[in-house]
Structure formats: C-alpha cells, structure tokens
Amino acid sequence: MTNNYPPVSFFFKVEFQLSGVKSADAMFQEVNGFNVELQTEEIKQGGENRYAQALPTRARYSDLVLKRGLLVDSGIVKWCKDAIENLDIQPITIIVTLLNEKKEPLQTYNIVNAWPKKWSISDLNAQESKIVVETMELSYQYFKTV
Tens of pLDDT along the chain (146 residues)? Predict the structure, then answer.
C-alpha cells in the first residue's frame, strides 16, 4: 500500500564519503541548502524597446549548511579545519537520505564535490542553558536526486 502523505523532514541521515568519519560523527540536527536556480542573461534586441529577452545560462546551487551539537573529536571538523586553516581542500561526496518511519530511504541526494567554506560555533552565554551548536557551510558543484 502506497503512502500518499508528504514525508516528514526530521527523519534523515547524512553520510560523508571521507575516511575516518564514524556514523555518530555525521549526525546533524539541521541540513539546508537544497536550492537550485537557473541563471539568465538579458539580451536587448535592436529596435525592440518594450522588453529584453531573458535566456537561460547555467544552474546555480546555494551552499549546503549543516548544524549539530558541537563534537570535540570529529573527523568532519578535522576535514573542515584542514581546508580552512591549511588550504588542504579535499572535495568529497555527501549523501543525504530522507527516511520513512521504517528507516527505509524515500529520497536520496548526492551532493557532488563538496568542500568546507565556513565553520562556526554558536555564542557562549552563561545566562542561557543551551548546547553549543556548530555550523558548517559547504560549497559544492551540484546535487542530484537518486
């Protein structure tokens, strides 16, 4: 029997195609940045002053943003720091899979040639009882749905 309801967005898994990364290292509370936009080039025609033609040029993908509680010993953070601090940029494939209630894949996204662009942690504040959240912003070439 097919379920015709839209899937929930909170049941997903993230996999890094990177050596030294444990499955617990790739648990995130938030993943966003699955945006693609077709860019256009405006062409003005001689003699036609009412409008300009908009012609498609190429797709533009937004950055992938991953958020989770801070992990002190993390292979993913080491990968980020190597890229940012040492300019040792190693593009990898990241797989994000949306799961159903039986942990079966509903939709899989392959993020191709991702590399760290930014790494940050949330503010430290003695007046709030929140966990420290680390944010990774990754640039990538494109994503494809599998």
Answer: 456 678 888 999 999 988 877 766 789 999 999 999 999 999 988 888 888 999 999 999 999 999 999 988 888 999 999 999 999 999 999 999 999 888 899 999 999 999 999 999 999 999 999 999 999 999 999 999 98
Residue that has been written with the tokens 């040029």 in this structure? 57
User: For 24, which DSSP code?
Assistant: G
Specify the residue for token string 């029997």. Answer: 1
- Match 């953070």 to its residue by tokens: 77
Phi/psi at 81 (5° precision): -65, -40
* Single pTM value for the model: 0.84
Q: φ and ψ at 85, to 5 degrees?
A: -85, -35
With a CB cutoff of 8 Å and minimum separation 6, the contacts of 83 are 89, 90, 115, 116
Q: How many CB atoms lie within 10 A of CB 31?
A: 20
Q: Which residues contact 1 (CB under 8 A, 6 or more apart)?
A: none
